[in-house]
Every structure is written in C-alpha cells, then in structure tokens.
Design a protein that fits this description.
Layout (H helix, E strand, L loop, with lengths): L34 E3 L28 E3 L9 H7 L4 E6 L4 H12 L3 E8 L10 E5 L18 E4 L10 H20 L6 E5 L13 H14 L4 E6 L2 E3 L9 H10 L3 H7 L4 E3 H11 L9 E3 H7 L2
Parallel strand pairs: 3-4, 3-6, 4-5, 6-7, 7-8, 8-11, 9-10
Antiparallel strand pairs: 1-2
Helix pairs in contact: 2-7, 3-4, 7-8
C-alpha cells in the first residue's frame, strides 16, 4: 500500500552511540531500571540523537524511546526481548479488515503482552482467537451505542482509511476526519493515559494549507488528534508491503501488489526510508503503546521498521 515515507534513523557520537540527554543542571538523565530503548538496548541513559534542525520530540527521531521490559538481558535479540514483555495491553482496533489492519491484528494476536483485542467492524472478521472480541457496528459517526465496549483500553490502533481516488471531497473528509475523531473521542473519554496510533501517510500536510486535498485532510486529522488529552502517535508510512497474506480491500491496490511484489526486496535495500511492511507496522504500534507518550509523535517508514524489527 502506498501511503508515503521518509525518515532518518537516529545518529549518535562515538561508536554509533547517541549523545546522552541531560537535565537542566547538566546531569545525565537516566532511564528507569526496567527500560530498553527503541533499538532494544539494555537500560542506561535516556539518549537523545543529534538530529539537527528538529524543533522538538513531536516529529523526527529526537528521542531514543524507552519502554518497560521484563527480565531482559543485554544479550537478548529483539525477538527475545519482545517475547519477554508481559504488560497486559488491551487494544481497540479499527480497520481490522483492511490490509494494514490485518497485519496489526496478526501482530497483536501473536504478542503475549497484548491480552485483549477489541476489533470494531461493520461485518464479522474471518478470524477467531481467544483474546479477540469483535464489536459489530454500522454507524462510525456515532459510537455512543458501543461506548461500554470501548472503555478502559490501553491503546487504540486506528487503521481505517480509504483512498481519495474516486471519492467526493465530502465523502473522503467524512471517512478520514469525522470517523477518526468520533473514534478518538469515544476511546479517550475519561482515559487520558490512552495511546492512540493513527495510520496517516507520507505526504500528509501538517500545515493544512497545501495543494493536495487528501494531504490537508490527513494533516487536519493529525493535528486534531495531537490536541486531544491522550498520547497520540501518527504513523506516516510510504510503501507498505504485505508479508503474511494480507490483502487490500481496494481492487487496484490488489492488482498493484500482484504485479510489483517482486520489487519489495529491491526497494527495501535501495530506499529503506520509504518502505516498511505490515509486520513491522503492527509491531511498532504495540511498541509505542508501551511508551506512555514518550518519543517522537510522528513516525515515518524507516522509524516504523526500526521500532518494529
């Protein structure tokens, strides 16, 4: 799926290590004892990259995030560290029937730290699992009738989205902005510690003044979510490669993937800043759900891939 992509991996000082973040008095700022940064390194200093030109942690790779971990050791591989994490995360998932949502659902069901997944959909999913519960609802402009099902979640992964091609401006804005904001209001009600992850796309216009209508609507949606009382992250992937049989509900996307899937290994080597996968995207969402609002708020393909590796 072509959503967009760019991003720069954090860089550091000697030996590739990032320079340490310090408090106002110059003392090193240390991470909690049960933390690892987003590259999976063991606890230590909460590092800050030398990402010049960035104005703060909202966008870019300013912070090497830290997240709780259980009994990890410096020799653990990223996969071993993921398997050790047991946090009891309850997730609400929108868009589980789409290509991205299928990948995110798979990641949630495979992660032992995710204890419950509530998938909100218009029709039943062709999937069953002990920790998966489906909530069937038709009107996404009014989620009031299912408010009880959406209460008490730790994270909401919002993967519902459509292409602007072939749709009127009003229809696209309704699906992209109105549906998203209604979902955010419903899941964040009385829950300021919620993490809301919104799948946006490379090229999104945060200024809301650009020429592309879809980019302005995406930017408006991102900005409105960032202003809410919750931990919001916007994922701006570029090329999203399905890797476990996920399929798009959009016919021309399906055709595109059928004829270009052989390009993915090449694109991943030549343009890693613009490419990620459904697997990495799903894992990255789970990772940011454990950050309690820390780190950059806007992530692009390379950052998503690194975080979900």
């Amino acid at each position: 799926m072509v959503a967009g992509a760019a991003g720069r991996a954090p860089r550091g000082g000697r030996g590739g290590r990032p320079s340490a973040q310090r408090t106002e008095d110059g003392a090193p700022l240390t991470a909690p004892e049960n933390a690892v940064n987003w590259f999976g390194h063991p606890p230590g200093r909460l590092a800050r990259s030398q990402n010049r030109g960035s104005s703060g942690p909202r966008e870019g790779a300013d912070l090497l995030w830290v997240c709780p971990r259980v009994d990890a050791t410096p020799t653990d591989t990223p996969a071993e560290q993921r398997s050790r994490r047991r946090f009891g995360v309850k997730v609400i998932l929108f868009g589980a029937s789409g290509m991205v949502g299928q990948g995110v659902l798979r990641a949630c069901l495979e992660d032992p730290g995710v204890t419950e997944v509530i998938a909100v959909a218009r029709r039943p999913l062709d999937r069953s699992a002990p920790k998966l519960r489906e909530v069937i609802h038709q009107d996404f402009t009014d989620l009031g009738p299912i408010a009880a099902d959406l209460a008490g979640a730790d994270a909401c992964f919002y993967c519902l989205g459509v292409s602007a091609a072939g749709r009127s401006a009003a229809e696209y804005e309704k699906i992209t902005y109105a549906y998203t904001m209604e979902a955010a209001r419903a899941v964040a009600a009385g829950n300021p510690h919620l993490t809301f992850v919104y799948v946006s796309g490379e090229g999104t216009d945060s200024t809301e003044r650009g020429r592309a209508f879809w980019a302005r609507v995406k930017g408006r949606t991102e900005n409105a979510l960032m202003a809410m009382d919750m931990h919001t992250y916007a994922f701006r992937p570029g090329w999203i490669q399905p890797v476990h049989g996920e399929t798009s509900s959009t016919r021309w996307y399906r055709l595109l993937y059928r004829f270009t899937s052989w390009l993915y290994p090449l694109l991943r080597r030549l343009t890693p800043r613009y490419v990620t996968s459904t697997e990495h995207l799903g894992r990255a969402m789970i990772a940011v759900a454990r950050l309690n609002g820390a780190g950059p708020r806007i992530l692009r393909s390379q950052q998503i891939t690194q975080l979900g590796a």
